[in-house]
């Protein structure tokens, strides 16, 4: 087996505006749904932004982007995944004209990337719906959101058509089932949300995503536009046929979103599900044609697998963050996310077998508590062998999937520089190759320090993956 990745493989890292930019109220930016969510995905909201919300400052990428992109270039990044904060461009979300200062900021960021030969991979909506759209319209439950989103995407596609050629529409679009506020900007509390409302919001997002794909292909014929889903292989807890079918159904619930993005229509199993639940989705007469605008590739996050069973008595514990049942054969991270490198190869093969579209792994990584130390040379660093081991095991499985015949565009590990965790809004849960001197009590200098994994990933990229196998030779 050739121990290198394809010559055109896009190595890099991934971030999100709300988790690392900071400057939440500078240069005309409006509030986003994240600015009143100080404690993570499922925590209570606040009336106004509060000092304990780490995302308001993040790691101050807004002012330090040149320094950070230079570090990414030193690692050898071919691609850098970031998101545009919708409320920087349209502060309330429903304005007719964009905020020029917000547009100019991303011009500067993209220009800095190109200075080093790094291609931006841009997520259009990454858990940062303008707060006004959530409060005034109940987010994606309201069909008017499609109009606002269309105005937003036309603006950024026209502005950046010569600077960005890789785009993702909605981050982890299938997460709306579990987290309707952050994923769908839905103001109605989850416990009060009816299934009909949830799936109506999902439908509006799917139509908006397809419309963005259509517009993008018109404005930027050479650009590649992808969807982005959470990829979680679901194993039956036992070999009982009931468990096997339950796992199949759970996994297919996630696949629904990719099915529509790639095939341009709802699958038959969704129609049965809607009928059995008594869900009647309201369609516009144009929706069927819009959905036919299918994506060029499928991108996904991968952190874990899970198990499922029909036996309710075995569901008394908490599985991974997306639910399910714990796998007795797997270890877990400090935050309880079960580690399953082979599951990545498995889900890649499933996705490629199902769709025969190129894949792009745009999130994968290990959140851990890192200790900043001074090494023998007097440099501050982190000896994060645990992160290196995690990433190495997963990248080996990506390589295996490529040799299985899966077409893979690239890999951007999550949180390539430390940032605020989405799930818990902590900074102590670190993912990066670069340590940022900021802590959950708000202290710190914001200085950047290279971890051991920085040099490891640099070598992986330099050798196009061959370094993954050097220890075994």
From TrEMBL:
CC per GO annotation: cytosol
Name of one Pfam family that matches: Glyco_hydro_1
Molecular function per GO: beta-glucosidase activity
Keywords: Glycosidase, Hydrolase
Any one biological process term the GO annotation gives: carbohydrate catabolic process
Active site residues of this protein: 363
SUPFAM superfamilies, A to Z: (Trans)glycosidases
Gene3D superfamilies referenced in this protein's UniProt entry, alphabetically: Glycosidases
Similarity section: Belongs to the glycosyl hydrolase 1 family.
Protein's recorded name: Glycoside hydrolase family 1 protein
């Amino acid at each position: 087996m050739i121990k290198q990745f394809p010559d055109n493989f896009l190595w890099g890292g991934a971030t999100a505006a709300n988790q690392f930019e900071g400057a939440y109220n500078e240069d005309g930016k409006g509030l986003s749904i994240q600015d009143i969510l100080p404690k993570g995905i499922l925590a209570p909201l606040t009336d106004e932004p509060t000092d304990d919300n780490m995302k308001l400052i993040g790691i101050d990428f807004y002012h330090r982007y040149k320094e950070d992109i230079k570090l990414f270039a030193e690692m050898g990044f071919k691609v850098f995944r970031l998101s545009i904060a919708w409320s920087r461009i349209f502060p309330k979300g429903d304005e007719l004209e964009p905020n020029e200062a917000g547009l100019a900021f991303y011009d500067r960021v993209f220009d800095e990337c190109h200075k080093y030969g790094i291609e931006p991979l841009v997520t259009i909506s990454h858990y940062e719906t303008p707060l006004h759209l959530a409060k005034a319209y109940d987010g994606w439950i309201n069909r008017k959101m499609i109009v606002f989103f269309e105005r937003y995407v036309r603006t950024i596609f026209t502005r950046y058509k010569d600077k960005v050629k890789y785009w993702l529409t909605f981050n982890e679009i299938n997460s709306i089932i579990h987290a309707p506020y952050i994923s769908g900007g839905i103001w109605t509390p989850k416990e009060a949300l009816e299934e009909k409302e949830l799936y109506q919001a999902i439908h509006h997002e799917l139509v908006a995503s397809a419309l963005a794909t259509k517009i993008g292909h018109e404005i930027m014929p050479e650009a590649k536009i992808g969807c982005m889903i959470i990829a979680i292989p679901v194993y039956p807890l036992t070999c009982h046929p009931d468990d096997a079918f339950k796992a199949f159904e759970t996994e297919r619930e996630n696949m629904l979103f990719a099915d529509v993005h790639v095939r341009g229509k709802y699958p038959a199993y969704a129609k049965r599900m809607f009928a059995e639940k008594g869900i009647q989705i309201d369609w516009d007469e144009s929706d069927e044609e819009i959905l036919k605008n299918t994506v060029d590739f499928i991108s996904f996050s991968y952190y874990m697998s899970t198990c499922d069973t029909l036996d309710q008595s075995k569901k008394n514990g908490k599985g991974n963050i997306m639910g399910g049942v714990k796998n007795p054969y797997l270890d877990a991270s400090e935050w309880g996310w079960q580690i399953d490198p082979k599951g990545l190869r498995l889900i890649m093969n499933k996705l490629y077998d199902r769709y025969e579209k190129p894949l792009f792994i745009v999130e994968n990584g290990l959140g851990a508590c890192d200790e900043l130390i001074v090494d023998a040379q007097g440099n501050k660093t982190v000896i994060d062998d645990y992160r290196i081991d995690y990433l190495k095991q997963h990248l080996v499985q990506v390589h295996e999937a490529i040799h299985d015949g899966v077409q893979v565009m690239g890999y951007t590990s999550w949180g390539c520089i430390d940032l605020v965790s989405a799930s818990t809004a902590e900074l102590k849960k670190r993912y990066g190759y670069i340590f940022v001197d900021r802590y959950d009590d708000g202290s710190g200098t914001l200085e950047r320090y290279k971890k051991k994994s920085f040099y490891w990933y640099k070598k992986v990229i330099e050798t196009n993956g061959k370094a993954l196998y050097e220890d075994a030779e």
